[in-house]
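Folding Query — how this chain folds
Tokens — whole-number codes for backbone shape
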Amino acid sequence: MAVALARLLRDDETVFFGVASPLPMVAALLAKRLHAPSLTILTIPGGVDPRPASLPLSTVDPLLLSGAVARITLADVFDLSARGRLDTAFLGGVQIDGQGRINLSAIGDPRHPKVRLPGGAGSAALMPTARRTVLWRTRHDTRTFVAELPFVTAAGNVDRVVTPLCVFQRIDGLLTVESVHPFSTADAVRAATGFPLTDAAAWPSTPPPTPDELAALREIDPAGRVAAEFAGR
């Protein structure tokens, strides 16, 4: 998933990832190392293009100020996005529907929810204002990718959704499978998705990570920080 997320980032663009985002953090550093050296990385602690000696477990760790070329505030990030100058925002969602909308608020009747979720933080502001949003989720099942959200926390300029099974692309307002990861299958994607999908015959396979991508990933994340997201899913 880190490699699939990294490949979506382009040189010369500005990317932001929020709290609890080890995967996007590693993906941004991987993209900058391999194919996007002019990528500008913005972080929650305020470090721009940080160069920490080691990766923190949390993406709000002050270590992400280390070696930064500049410091900004979170208000600066929202201002940048509101002015249409934030190219890519990485965001997550507890539930995601076929339109790429997310729920981070409540499961069940919002007036009497079965589960109260942590809330959307700034997602409702960033999703419609960032030029594009890339969603990721380390769980892909019918409880996560649902036909109907009980509550829409945020909606907007979703471009891709990366999961452990596949990559979705949003086309004409609907999520379509762009590729299926080589260790997954079309049947597994269809069975784990709660909204309708197009014909599986047209789904190509995600190119596997190259030796260079794997080597760079091991250098950037020798302690396996991305594993924290899978442990908590």
